[in-house]
Amino acid sequence: VDMRWHFKDRVKDGVLRHPADSEAWKSFNQIHESFGMEPRNVRLGLATDGFNPFGNMNLHYSIWPVLIYPYNLPPWMCMKEPYVFMTLLIPGPKGPCHDIDVYMRPLIDELRTLWEIGVETYDIYVKQNFQMRAALLWTINDYPAYAYMSGWSTSGKLACPYCASNTLHRRLSHGSKTCYLGHRRFLPSDHVWRNQGSQFDNTRERRLAPKRPSGDDVINELSELREITHGKDGKKHTIFGFGKDHNWKKHSIFFQLPYWKTLLVRHNLDVMHIEKNVFENVIGTMMSIDGKTKDSLNARLDLQEMGIRQRYHPEEGDNDGYSGNLSRCVNASERNISGMKTHDCHELCAKVLREDDLNLLDNQIVITLCKLEKIFPPAFFDIMIHLTCHLAWEAKVAGPVQFRWMYHVERYLHKLKTYVRNKAHPEGSIAKGVLGDECLIFYSRYLHRVETKFNKRDRNDDGGQPSYDTSLLSIFSTPGRAFGKGVLREMSIELHKAATHYVLQNCDEALPFVYVDNVEESHRLQFSNWISKR
User: Fold this and answer.
1) pLDDT per residue over 153-186, tens digit each?
2) Burial class of residue 238, CB neighbours in 10 A (0-12, 13-18, 19+)
3) Which residues pair with 128 in a beta bridge?
4) What sign does the dihedral 256-68-117-74 (CA atoms) show?
5) What is the spatial distance between Cα 86 and Cα 65, in angstroms, rounded to a whole number?
6) Which segments constitute the DUF4218 domain (predicted)?
7) Spatial contact of 66 and 88, defined as CB atoms under 8 Å apart
8) d(Cα 184, Cα 369) in Å, to the nearest integer?
9) Which of 48, 47, 216, 28 is closest to 134 using CA atoms?
10) Is pLDDT above 80 for 286?
11) For residues 346 and 309, is the Cβ–Cβ distance under 8 A?
12) Percent of the chain scored above 90 by pLDDT?
C-alpha cells in the first residue's frame, strides 16, 4: 500500500511536497507512458560519498558506499534508514575519483535490466504477481562527487555544470583563485542594472542568461569528444579542449541507461554544502573571522587591479575590512563564532513549496547576487556563491530539497562508521553490519508481539495514563503525565481559536478536510468552527 501512496493517496493541489509533485516526475511519466501507467514501478535516487571509517582523521582512508533510495514511499517513510539499500561498497584506501564508473558497471547493468525487462514480484496487497520495473531519477552527491558521477569537472574556470562553457570567470592574480561574477546577465533584458557598469565591473551587460544543457545537448557534445578509458589499464589522458571549450573529464556511464537523457535533472546540486559555504562566506566576511573572511589585502589589491570601487583600494595604514570587527561582540578573546547549528543555515529550505514562490525566489536570488557584487570583493564569489542562482530552478523541477540533499546520506555514513570493529578490514566490518541490520529489519516486520523499530512506543510516551477519553481524537491518545502542578488560566477567544486550529491541523482525522477550504486566511480563521459543524 505504501508503494502506491504517490498514486492513490497523494494530495494533488499544485503544491510541491514530494518528488511525485515535481515537474521531473511528471515529465518522465509523459515521455515513458508504459512505465508511468503502472504505479507499482519504482522510482529511485542514487547517492554516494566517501568517508573515513576510522576515528583518526590524520589517517587518509576513503570508503565509498553507493546507496539507493526508493521514492514511491510517502514523505514520512521516504529517505529513512529502514528503506535505504547499500548496493555497492567501493573499498579504500584511495577514493575511486573518475574511475568510479568501473565499480558502477554491475549496478548500471542491473538498472538496465530493471528498466527493459523488470523482475517478477509478488504484490501482497492484491495477492498476485506482476512485472516490476524501476528507473533512476537522479543522483545525490556533494560537489566533488558531482564531477565523478557526471563527468563534468567542478573545478577550474568552467566549474558550473549548468552554465557549462558559458560560465563567466576571472582569475584573481593577487588572491590566486577563480571568481565567478557577471550575474547581471540573469536579470531581465531591460533591467536598469545592466547599464550601471560603474557599480559593478565598469562594463555594460548585454549578454543573456545561458541555456541549461539538456540530455540531448550533452550527448551531442560528448559525441564530438574522444572517449577516455578508465581503470587500472586506462591511460590518464585529458580530452582536447578541456578547461577552455568544455570541462568534460569522461563520458558518464549513466548515459548507458536508455532513459537517462530524458531526465530534466540528472545530478542534484548539494544544497547542504552550498548553504553551509554561503553562510560561512557571508558571516566570515562581515565579522572578519580569521581564515573565513573573503575581504583581505589581496582582495583589495584585486579591486585596485580591476579598477573598480576606488574607495576600497588599499592605503597605507588603512583597515582591510569592509566592516568593523563585529566578532568582538561574540567572543572577545577568540574573535570567532562557534556553536552554529545546521538549522541556522537551512531555515528557508521549506518542506512545502509553491511554484509562484519559487518563481519569485528565482528572480530575487539574482537580484541579491547583483547587490552583493556591488558590496563584496570579487574573491567573495566562489563557485558555491554562483550555484545559488540555480537552486530555485532545481527545486521547481525536482521538488523539495529534503529528498535530494546530503543530510540523510551523511547521517547514514556516520552509522556505517559505527560498524567498524576490525580496523584491518573496515570494508568487511561494514558489509557484515549492514547485512545484519537488513536481517533484523526483515524479521522485525513479522514479530508482532515484540517491540521493534516499527511498533515501538511514541518518542514522547512517558508511561502515564490520561484521565480523558482517548477514543475521540488520535492526537489525544498518546499517554502522558503532567509536568509539575497545573495552573489555571483564562484564554481569550483569539487564543482559543489559535489552539483549536493548531490541534486540528495536526490531527489525522481532520486531514481529509484540511484541503477543502484552501483559502489560507479564511482557512485559519474559520476552519475550527467549520469542521465542528460537519
Assistant:
1) 999 999 999 999 999 998 988 888 899 988 999 9
2) exposed
3) 123
4) negative
5) 7
6) 348-460
7) yes
8) 9
9) 28
10) yes
11) no
12) 47
Q: Cα–Cα distance between 499 and 527 in angstroms, integer?
A: 12
Cα–Cα dist 403/25, whole Å: 13
d(CA 301, CA 327): 24
Amino acid at 449: R
Q: For residue 20, give the nearest of 31, 8, 32, 378 by alpha carbon.
A: 8
Q: How confident is the model at residue 298 (pLDDT cuts 50, 70, 90)?
A: confident
Q: Which residues are bridge partners to 46 per DSSP?
A: 68, 139
Q: Is the pLDDT of residue 346 over 90?
A: no
What confidence score (pLDDT) does residue 58 get?
66
SS3 content of the chain, % helix, strand, coil (to 5): 45, 10, 45
CA 138 to chain centre: 11
pLDDT at 485: 79
Q: Are 389 and 415 in contact (CB under 8 A)?
A: no
Q: Which grid coordinates are listed for 27? A: 515529465
Q: Cβ–Cβ contacts within 10 Å for residue 370, how many?
A: 22
Strands 134-140 and 267-268 turn out to be parallel
Residue 325 has pLDDT above 50, yes or no: no
pLDDT digits (tens, 9 = 90+) for 502-525: 888 777 777 666 655 455 556 666
More confident residue, 382 or 296: 382
Instruction: Name the H helices within 354-425.
Output: 355-373, 383-387, 391-398, 407-418
pLDDT at position 308: 79
**In whole angstroms, how far apart are CA 469 and each of 13, 17, 458, 481, 488?**
35, 34, 19, 15, 21
Look at residues 365, 374, 380, 379 and name the one whose alpha carbon lies nearest to residue 281: 380
Residue 477 has pLDDT above 70, yes or no: no
User: Which residues, including other chains, have CB under 8 Å from residue 487's CB and lie 6 or more apart?
Assistant: none
Q: pTM score, two decimals?
A: 0.80
Return the C-alpha torsion angle 256, 262, 263, 264, nearest 10.
Answer: 140
For the segment 216-237, the average pLDDT, to the nearest whole number, is 78
**Nearest Cα to 254, choosing from 62, 73, 100, 389?**
100
Residue 378: how many CB atoms within 10 A of its CB?
Answer: 23
Residue 334 banded pLDDT, cuts 50, 70, 90: low
Which helix (H) or strand (E) segment holds residue 119: the answer is: strand 119-123
Give the burial class of 419: count Cβ atoms within 10 A of its Cβ; 0-12 exposed, 13-18 middle, 19 or more buried.
middle
Cell representation of residue 249: 573529464
Q: Is 27 helix (H, G, I), strand (E, B) or coil?
A: helix
The torsion angles phi and psi of 259, rounded to 5 degrees, stand at -100, 0
pLDDT in tens, 38-75: 999 999 999 999 999 987 766 789 999 999 999 999 99
CA 145 – CA 50 distance, rounded (Å): 9
Who contacts 173 (Cβ-Cβ below 8 Å, separation ≥6)?
302, 305
Name the grid cell of 338. 562557534
Using DSSP, state whether 354 is helix, strand or coil.
strand
